[in-house]
Amino acid sequence: MTKKKNEFSPDQFVVYPAHGVGKIVSVETQEVAGFELEMFVIAFEKDKMTLRVPTHKATDVGMRALATPDVVNHALKTLRGKAKVKKAMWSRRAQEYEQKINSGDLIAIAEVVRDLHRQDDQREQSYSERQLYEAALERLTGQAVIDAAVAGDDENAAAAQIGSVLVGRAA
Fold first, then answer.
1. Distances from the Cα of 127 to the Cαs of 94, 133, 134, in angstroms?
2. Would you state the pLDDT for residue 121?
3. What is the arithmetic mean of pLDDT over 85-110?
4. CA 126, CA 59: separation in Å to the nearest integer?
């Protein structure tokens, strides 16, 4: 097995697709099935969960650094856009939305929030629509807030900005 330079380091915030934003607490070596494996230990504060990811598999599983301000701005621009709801059956659309949410791609998550967001005067969401919407919104807001905190900006302002974009779409 070849050693390659890790692009992640302890105390760095990262996005793990299935769980959102976490912080690398340490890098440790564990013996698994007779092999020594170097692992990132990632803490997810919100879920009170710790995840161990083999360092050589981190990028393969989709782990990545936080989004740049350009990507966050692109995601906000995506949120402002007009909802694109396909005519496919709900089960198919739900599957696509789930894949986008779990991809960890901020812009894809913004698309899900945009497409599932409902104004007060629109029809009620189904339970599964609401679940997907809330999961996407939580993932999007979580990363925007962490990005703001790391950049030294106001976290509440970052969360409020996403809310105001969604409210402003009605106008």
1. 12, 10, 11
2. 61
3. 87
4. 35
